[in-house]
Amino acid sequence: MNKDWLEKDFYKVLGVSKGASADEIKKSYRKLARELHPDKNPGDAKAEERFKEVSEAYDVLSDDKKRAEYDEARTLFAGGGGRFGGGGFGSPGGFGGGTTYDFNDVFGADEGGLGDILGNIFSRGRGGTGRRAQPRRGQDVESEITLGFDDALNGVTVPLRLASEAACDACRGTGARAGTVPRVCPSCEGTGQTTRNAGGFAFAEPCGACAGRGLIVDDPCPSCHGSGRGLSTRTVQARIPAGVKDGARIRLKGKGAPGERGGQSGDLYVVVHVTSHPVFGRKGDNLTVTVPITFTEATLGGQVVVPTPGGGTVTLKIPAGTANGRTFRVRGKGVTRKDGTKGDLLATVEVRVPADLSDEAREALQKYAEATAGEDPRADLLAAAKG
Q: With contact defined as beta carbons under 8 Å apart, do 378 and 368 qualify?
């Protein structure tokens, strides 16, 4: 649990309500990320700062566990900054008669639950210095790509240009000008936290002298102004597996923002959009195609050539008397599945009626009509309608 969470309204940053669904949060984040992305706002420091705020807010609210901890901590300390009204622990008239109680003991910090949430806020006891800064995992990053139909079927490796927070290149994350080093903060002795008494118990808060870093920078780095962090732009090679669907969200572990203080990198989530194909469609793991055939082929039967993905063809045998709209299955010509097997190609025939006829063709059809004059394909329909 990051102590800074208590001071930030992540819902307000993303412009959503506290009860917003995961989809609403994601939609708002994507919109803001596109508007504020550094590539779209070169040299705009305010847009860059807002981009960082939006990314941090989404990192918390998109993770169910982090969001629950954030909501619980914000609710617990809403309007009180950690001060409980009435007779509280260690307060006059409350339990303990003025004795200081350790909140970690009260809420069972060693057993998880609420104690873990409060663990980074309260100290271990009266006069304690709090916990030392722990490694922090990097933020997850989300990007979007658009693939052609064939690339989605076969799989492809694409370069993605990403912008995220990382250690400042100029000072390597120290925050100090090149050739100098930060010194340990004398106020908090490097912990980043100081303790004050509030209502009879010890309350840990970010050190005001070093802003919670645990270090004092006497000669700040001119690039990051002493923060030790900067906006890093990098290119990642993302492998998109064969058979990916439109709208799929692919996780690339460890390809997100770098961690802090030795923490592991976050993950990269790639949302894939697939363009439509002029010939083929998709239905699950199967591909679909509409194959025009002539009246003669449908009536007498025959063999027709059907296209397959990638420029190939197969020959499809049409039985005599094939009805319009009948679907034939071509095995193994569909989408590649996760286990390496393939779906099928579903070929639906469509009997084409010619708009123009030669005199010879018209005469032949006229003879056919005369030869079948006694047949009425609508007889059963009309009889059924009459009941």
A: no
User: For 3-30, how does the pLDDT look when each residue is reduced to its tens digit (9 = 90+)?
Assistant: 555 678 889 999 999 889 988 998 998 8
Which of 136, 144, 139 minimizes the C-alpha distance to 165?
139
Residue ranges and CATH numbers for the domains of the chain are 281-386 (2.60.260.20)
Angle (deg, nearest 10), helices 45-61 and 22-36: 160
Q: What is the pLDDT of residues 140-185, one digit of tens each?
A: 888 899 999 999 999 999 998 877 666 777 787 778 888 888 888 8
CB 269 within 8 A of CB 141: yes
| Residues paired with 167 in a beta bridge | 229
Quick check: helix, strand or coil at residue 214?
A: coil
Enter the tokens of residue 247: 């709208």
Strands 345-351, 286-293: pairing is parallel
Burial (0-12, 13-18, 19+ Cβ within 10 Å), 89: middle
Cβ partners under 8 Å of residue 125, min gap 6: 100, 102, 202
E-strand stretches of 47-99: none
Task: Give the whole-angstrom CA distance, residue 57 versus residue 74.
Answer: 14
Check: CB of residue 163 under 8 Å from CB of residue 156: no
Query: With contact defined as beta carbons under 8 Å apart, do 348 and 327 qualify?
Result: yes
Closest CA to 162 of 257, 49, 42, 259: 257
pLDDT classification of 212: cutoffs 50, 70, 90:
confident
For residue 248, CA distances in Å to 152, 220, 245, 344, 386 come to 11, 44, 5, 21, 52
Cα separation of 157 and 159, whole Å? Answer: 7
Nearest to 214 by CA among 174, 158, 248: 174
CB 369 within 8 A of CB 362: no
Residues forming a β-bridge with 163: 233
